[in-house]
Amino acid sequence: MKQTRLIDLVPHAVLILGVLVFAYPIYVTLIGSTWDSGTIGRGGLPLWPGGEAAANYAQAWAGEAGERAMYTPVRTMMLNSLVMALCIALGKIAISILSAYAVAFFRFPLRMAFFWLIFITLMLPVEVRIIPTYKVVADLGLIDTYAGLTIPLIASATATLLFRQFFLTIPDELLEAAKIDGAGPVRFFFDVVLPLSRTNIAALFVILFIYGWNQYLWPLLVTGSRDMETIVTGITKMIGTGESANDWHLIMATTVLAMLPPVVVVVLMQRWFVKGLVDSEK
After folding, report:
1. Among the listed residues 199, 222, 179, the one whose alpha carbon sits nearest the alpha carbon of residue 84
2. Residue-wise burial string across 126-153, b where 16 or more C-beta atoms lie within 10 A, e elsewhere
3. Can you tell me where the transmembrane regions are (predicted)?
4. What is the pTM of this model?
5. Does residue 2 carry a pLDDT above 60?
6. Degrees, nearest 5: CA angle 236-239-243
7. How far from chain centre, in Å, is Cα 91?
8. 238-249 pLDDT tens trace
9. Secondary structure (3-state) at 65
């Protein structure tokens, strides 16, 4: 009995160790954002909160200059990241659900060929096609615009595949009943398919919002103006000026602020997110 109890404690110990490993850097960042740059620069960062939190966060949020360098205000970078993440998440869901609806419920020539063409794009991520994509965006005059930031990342083969697989589980009897009631394709989509897909949409929204928020390479290429910097590229540029020229207290405050929107989205949509991932029977 005693041995069984010890074995039962192992998973909990592993989980606690994993949480500590992941949480400690976040805790250090949070604590670092409450101290002045001199304390952090001397390498003796305490593990308890300091008294500079309000000043550091206010300076990071609205200020354009630290003690050693010029920065883009966090409010500007977070607005750009928020627009980018929302456009990518909502755009991907809208395009994917419509394309999956067409592939799953309509019969037209080359239907499966179009589906496999969409599926093949899974093997062509942004990093692979980034040079031709940048050329097209530059030729269209979309550099340093929200359209240039978001449109090349909106199409999603993964979301299309997931929606199609879910639509195939909708019983044919439901489709036949809708036809008997006089429902056309548009009404069937809005009255039946869309309500049944809400948990999948919620789960995909969380995943795609975080995907859009964390984008680094594409925003770094397609934006040159400080007014269009996203929060991820902004933090990288704040760090990239060398050890002696870094305002670590502002960098840590900016990093903490950058983590808030994804955390808020996950917390608010947690129930729908989990349900969308685990529910297969509708």
Report:
1. 222
2. eeeeeeebbeebeeeebbebeebbbbbb
3. 12-35, 82-106, 113-134, 146-167, 188-213, 248-269
4. 0.87
5. no
6. 160
7. 13
8. 886 555 667 888
9. strand
